[in-house]
Amino acid sequence: FLGANMLGFYALAYNISSLPSMAISQILAKVSFPLYSKLQEDQAKLKEAFLNFFLLNIILILPISLGIYILAYPLIINVLGIKWMPMLGVLKILCIFGFLRSLGGITGVVFNSLGRPGELKKLVLIHVILMSISIFPLGLKWGIEGVGISVVISQFINIYFAFIKLKKLINFNWREIFKINLIPFSASFLLVIFLVILKYFIKDTLLNFLIIIISGSIFYLGLIYLFKKEWYFKIWNLIKGLEF
Fold first, then answer.
1. Number of neighbours of residue 228 by Cβ within 10 angstroms
2. Considering the entire predicted model, what is its pTM?
3. What percent of the chain has pLDDT over 90?
4. Is 214 exposed, middle or buried (0-12, 13-18, 19+ CB in 10 A)?
5. What is the CA 120 to chain-centroid distance, rounded?
6. C-alpha to C-alpha distance for 94 and 206, rounded to whole angstroms
7. pLDDT single digits (tens) 84-117
8. What secondary structure does DSSP assign to 70-125, as a single string?
9. Largest CA distance in the chain
């Protein structure tokens, strides 16, 4: 009902917003699955492992999603070409989905590693039902942006139920989630300000676009090091699967 051209814009926006989070989530899942399985009888260590992988997910994926959102316009202009400009709005919307999808990957691997694939199937069913209800009316009203909004809303509700179920399994609390994420969220907020300032003062050229990406990456990593330099060692250990 959207037409081939609009679907093409949507598909590319979906891939750009989702591929980074999917790639990182797959790596984290590969490392965390055997660890969760090994610790399933020790709830305290299982919770600690989950919180650490959750933190790593936020540190890596949140700045990427925000970066794509802020730099969506220069990305299209300098890399894809002006003919792709109709996807600007949905690309920004789907950046939210990309981040939420990474959270879904983090929770999904816990359910699978603990032998609870049935919980995952229920969550998938919820997602499908919500999408079926919302995608057509929102798509007809706002086009591909409406489809993007439907995807984000469905994923957000799905993640909410996933965390409610997960909370019962490993007994974490929301205060712990807030505490461990305070620094990466603060660093990501400062990154947004930094990128907006750079974008304002630097002209839209491919070279300047690459300079902004490199500068933003250095700025964010520098903030993380400044706030919590021991996280670099924790990240390295988590990636090697040696933590705990």
1. 15
2. 0.87
3. 36
4. exposed
5. 19
6. 23
7. 999 999 999 999 999 998 888 888 888 888 888 7
8. HTHHHHIIIII-GGGGGGHHHHHHHHHHHHHHHHHHHHHHHHHHTT-HHHHHHHHH
9. 56
